[in-house]
């Protein structure tokens, strides 16, 4: 009788588990802790990489994960956890896993080795289909092993690059792209496949193909257009610049001075015409993150005084953002002087106010915006 009751209890527990949605580990559970549990229970690990502001993440949490059929498959087979990729633990993990879009779902074996991933929200059936495909498809791990063992066969590299691109692993994709372009820096522009690899996957400004193209853009520009090539070069430099400053969860800011110095040397080598833009933009951002508005204003003024640079009205507006109600009045006055000078230049016909930002037409010219910002710095509510 006791054995029967135990059996019934176990069956009831199984039924109860199957009747619920996905069961996630308690908040704060790490990937390392999930690995210990997965080994003990003979399961895989499912990781939901989310952010608090991500709409599709919330929709999955609300509409898909609670479904009975989702829980019925996931709970017996996976240790499931959710990690905010902007939390103290999640931010470095996101960088390590190269998570660049949300939601990203990563599947690991019990040793916490990735075996598959997919990106984006979906309905329940599609979600389960993706989970099943990525759980049994170990090709990503196999391809990584071939890469790490030194395999550089072009066909393999193309296959691996496609897998990495589909997984949004930008850093690894860049390395494979560099390998594919190795020795072809001067000729890749003639090959349509290699051209696309350069545009889609090269993110490292120190890559040989990038350096050569920055110095000799003509061949690629003849195929892709001068504007497109310049946009690619600018995007790589801008993205690299943003990587130099890292905000920590405790509010502190770290700055990679060595990488910054190397970056400035590269800009000089490439003879980038607006190299000072990258230097000063980085230092302005750093001072802002460090909440050092005196230094911040010094770099803003240096930027505006440089005849080779030009900050448009919207850039001036962005530079006002750090000035909160509690900011030193003298510093606010210096910022207002900068805005007043721009308004004087517009009034004198030296400049025209902006009416567009990119392809977007503004609802009112930017001189109105600058006046509103001056009022805001004075504590006045903007007039409609």
List keywords for this structure.
alpha+beta; 384 residues; two-stranded antiparallel ribbon; 59% helix
Question: How would you describe this protein?
Answer:
- By secondary structure, the chain is of the alpha+beta class.
- The chain is built from 19 helices and 8 strands.
- Helix 8 runs antiparallel to helix 9 and helix 18 (329-347) runs antiparallel to helix 19.
- The longest helix is centred in the last third of the chain and has 19 residues, at 329-347.
- The chain is globular, with a radius of gyration of 26 Å.
- It starts with a helix and ends in a 7-residue tail after the last helix.
- The model is unreliable at 1-19 (pLDDT under 50).
Number of helices: 19
* DSSP strand count: 8
Radius of gyration: 26 Å
**Shape call:** globular
Strand content: 5-15%
Given as residue ranges, the uncertain stretches (5+ residues, pLDDT < 50) are: 1-19
The level of helicity is 55-70%
How far apart lie the N and C ends?
A: 79 Å
Main sheet overview: 4 strands, mixed
Largest sheet strand order: 2-1-3-4
What is the succession of H and E elements? Answer: HHEHHEHEEHHHHHHHHEEHHHHHEEH
Structural class, judged by helices and strands? alpha+beta
Report the mean per-residue pLDDT as an integer: 90
What is the topological layout?
Elements: H1 2-18, H2 31-41, E1 44-50, H3 55-64, H4 68-77, E2 78-84, H5 90-97, E3 104-108, E4 114-119, H6 124-136, H7 139-148, H8 154-166, H9 170-181, H10 192-201, H11 208-215, H12 218-224, H13 226-242, E5 245-247, E6 253-255, H14 257-269, H15 275-289, H16 293-305, H17 313-319, H18 329-347, E7 356-357, E8 360-361, H19 366-377
Helix pairs in contact: 7-8, 8-9, 9-10, 12-13, 15-16, 16-18, 17-19, 18-19
């Amino acid at each position: 009788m006791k054995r029967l009751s135990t059996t019934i209890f176990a069956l009831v527990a199984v039924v109860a588990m199957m009747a619920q949605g996905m069961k996630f580990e308690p908040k704060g559970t790490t990937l390392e802790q999930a690995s210990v549990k997965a080994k003990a229970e003979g399961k895989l690990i499912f990781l939901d990489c989310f952010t608090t502001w991500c709409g599709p993440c919330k929709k999955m949490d609300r509409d898909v994960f609670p479904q009975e059929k989702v829980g019925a498959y996931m709970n017996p087979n996976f240790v499931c956890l959710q990690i905010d990729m902007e939390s103290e633990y999640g931010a470095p993990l996101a960088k390590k896993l190269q998570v660049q879009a949300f939601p990203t779902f990563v599947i690991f074996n019990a040793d916490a080795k990735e075996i598959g991933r997919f990106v984006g929200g979906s309905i329940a059936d599609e979600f389960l289909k993706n989970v099943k495909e990525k759980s049994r498809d170990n090709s990503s791990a196999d391809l990584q092993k071939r890469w790490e063992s030194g395999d550089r066969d072009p066909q393999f590299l193309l296959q691996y690059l496609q897998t990495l691109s589909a997984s949004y692993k930008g850093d690894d994709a860049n390395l494979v792209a560099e390998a594919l372009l190795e020795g072809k820096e001067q000729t890749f522009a003639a090959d349509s496949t290699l051209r696309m690899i350069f545009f889609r996957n090269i993110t490292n400004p120190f890559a040989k193909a990038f350096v050569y193209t920055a110095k000799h853009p003509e061949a690629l520009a003849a195929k892709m257009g001068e504007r497109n090539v310049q946009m690619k070069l600018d995007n790589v430099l801008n993205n690299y610049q943003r990587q130099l400053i890292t905000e920590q969860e405790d509010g502190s800011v770290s700055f990679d001075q060595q990488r910054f110095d190397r970056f400035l040397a590269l800009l000089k080598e490439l003879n980038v015409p607006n190299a000072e833009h990258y230097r000063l933009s980085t230092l302005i951002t750093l001072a802002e993150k460090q909440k050092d508005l005196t230094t911040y204003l010094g770099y803003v003024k240096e930027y505006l005084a440089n005849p080779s640079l030009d900050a448009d009205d919207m850039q001036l507006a962005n530079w006002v953002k750090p000035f909160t109600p509690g900011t030193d009045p003298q510093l606010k006055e210096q910022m207002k002087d900068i805005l007043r000078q721009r308004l004087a230049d517009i009034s004198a016909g030296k400049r025209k106010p902006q009416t567009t930002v990119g392809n977007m037409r503004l609802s009112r010219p930017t001189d109105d915006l600058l006046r509103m910002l001056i009022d805001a710095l004075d504590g006045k509510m903007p007039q409609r």
